[in-house]
Amino acid sequence: MDWFPLINSLRVAAISTVLIFLLGIWAANGITRLPAWLKGAVDTVLTLPLVLPPTVVGFFLLKTISPKAALGAFLLDAFNWKLTMTWYSAIFATTIVAFPLMYRTARGSFEQLSPEWEACAATMGLSRRFIFWRIKLPNCKAGLLAGTVLSFARALGEYGATSMVTGYIPGKTATVATTVYQLWREGNDGLAYTWVLIDLAISMVVLVAMNMFEKRGGEARARSAD
Amino acid sequence: MLEVRIEKSFADFHLKINLNAGNETIALLGASGAGKTMTLKCLAGVVKPDSGYVALDGRVWFDSEKQVFVPPQERGVGLLFQNYALFPNMTVRQNLLCGLRRDTPRHERDSAVESLMERFCISELHSHLPSQLSGGQQQRVALARCLARKPKLLLLDEPFAALDSHLRWRLEQELTNTLAEFDGTTLYVTHDCDETRRLCKRVCVVHRGCSQAVVNVGDWYHRPITKSAAQLAGFENVTEINIIKEGMASLDEWATSWPCEEPEPIGVAFRAEDASIEPNGKDFVILCRIVRSTEQETIVVTTANPSAFIRVRAQAQFAVGDTVFVSIPREKIVWLQREE
User: Fold this and answer.
1) Nearest CB to B131 within list A121, A135, A224
2) Which of A81, A100, B86, B127 is the least crowded, having the fewest Cβ atoms under 10 Å away?
């Protein structure tokens, strides 16, 4: 059996999860400092990929980075970067589609932090950087981990946008999700079932892990509220 | 010397605080939602007022005309919230270390933490997390933490609100000692009349975002000037009045009129303990019917209006349903002026 789809899916999901983790926390923390009128607009844009069909995300991506689009053509000309139909094209797709999960979970965690901590810390002379790294982040660890795991799971399972920007090239761009679709089209139910079971197993492990993080976070919150 | 003259507008609320304080403990007294905590945040620099001026001992922290705004990090203010805001991911020692200047050498900070812990009797707790501490211990740690940088201004936001009543008195004695040693200005936010009288010498009433003149606690307690001040001082009976003619005030709610020599009062107040029930009366009386008699007090309504409740000190010799006069000695009646 060719394990390439699994390895490819895992590396795509892992890389996009790292990106999502950093971008999501950055956006969730940054948006609290925006003026109220801008906050709503930015929040809408950042959450949009959650509700849009992934094919719409894929469509916009192709209209931006495919060699036929202006930016894609420029990158190809100038740097010889081909951003579609490669394995790493999937990173763009999964990062955008799964980003809102991290962003919204992180934002929820930040909002649950007591604003008094920040106020007290500031009067104690602690810098914004210290407050972020040593007070805010550690106290929403559970929520951030849950968001990360959720984003990873979503990135691993992404199909719509990924298939549009990477297509299906066995051994080059195939992921578990696109492989299952291809096997079904070919009527290869046996192998399709194998991949379905693998995907189910991974998803379940991930969701159990997430529930554990959330439970721990809930307990910590209950204790600190006491 | 603390000088405060700030204004800030919110969607449904306007904050306007004028206050001068020396080396003393001043109560910032008001009902919940009056803007007391917001005032503290403006003084700490966590919230920026729309306009005005804040200075401590001549150092200007905020001046909207000269575009001066000193961030909270550089003000050196001790801020204590009612839930103490200890950092839950840090031990007692780490919390205290956060309170000290980070540019001092490590061994100096360590010894400063040691002496703080000794002073507040929390040495044994140094490796505990805040969640492992009792409410009283949390308060000690929080107080130690906000005094660590030797602030000149201490802002205390209802420090006893989160504590069980049996703990309060003890901790109040500790806090009294701490405040007596403290060299600077303390603003003590509270809504509690008794706490104010025990801990503060002067009081500034805050009503719907507006501060009233700072007065001595005794003056406020016995002769409050405004309706809000009277209610906060525990006056059980407060009503509005109209001057119907020279020297005569009509108390519509209580269906009576009283002689009044004050200039332009808008209300009147008296304490339950100062009012007595008489079978007949003269000048300052209200015609009432007794509706309830408890160990603590007697409750009457005016004969004209069954929902105009008046609270009077307990007098057992009258029965429920009796029509009587509530009588108040002239010197116990407080005439109230318009809110500032």
Assistant:
1) A224
2) B127
Q: Give the residue, A12 or B99, on which the prediction is more confident.
A: A12
**B220 and B203 Cβ atoms separated by less than 8 Å:** yes
Mean pLDDT, rounded, of chain B: 91
Which two three-digit tokens encode residue B23? Answer: 């080396």
Q: State the ipTM, two decimals.
A: 0.82
Q: How close B220 gets to chain A, by Cα (Å)?
A: 31
Interior CA angle at B25 toward B20 and B31, to 5°?
80
CATH placement of domain A4-225: 1.10.3720.10
What single string gives the DSSP state of each residue in A127-193?
A: -HHHIIIIIIHHHTHHHHHHHHHHHHHHHHH--HHHHHHH---TTTT--HHHHHHHHHHHT-HHHHH
Count the Cβ atoms, other than its own, within 10 Å of residue B280: 8
Kindly provide the b/e burial profile for residues A124-143, where b requires at least 16 CB atoms within 10 angstroms of the residue's own CB: bbbeeebbeebbbbebbebb
Alpha carbons B123 and A33: distance in angstroms, whole number: 39
pTM: 0.82
Helix (H, G, I), strand (E, B) or coil at B157: strand
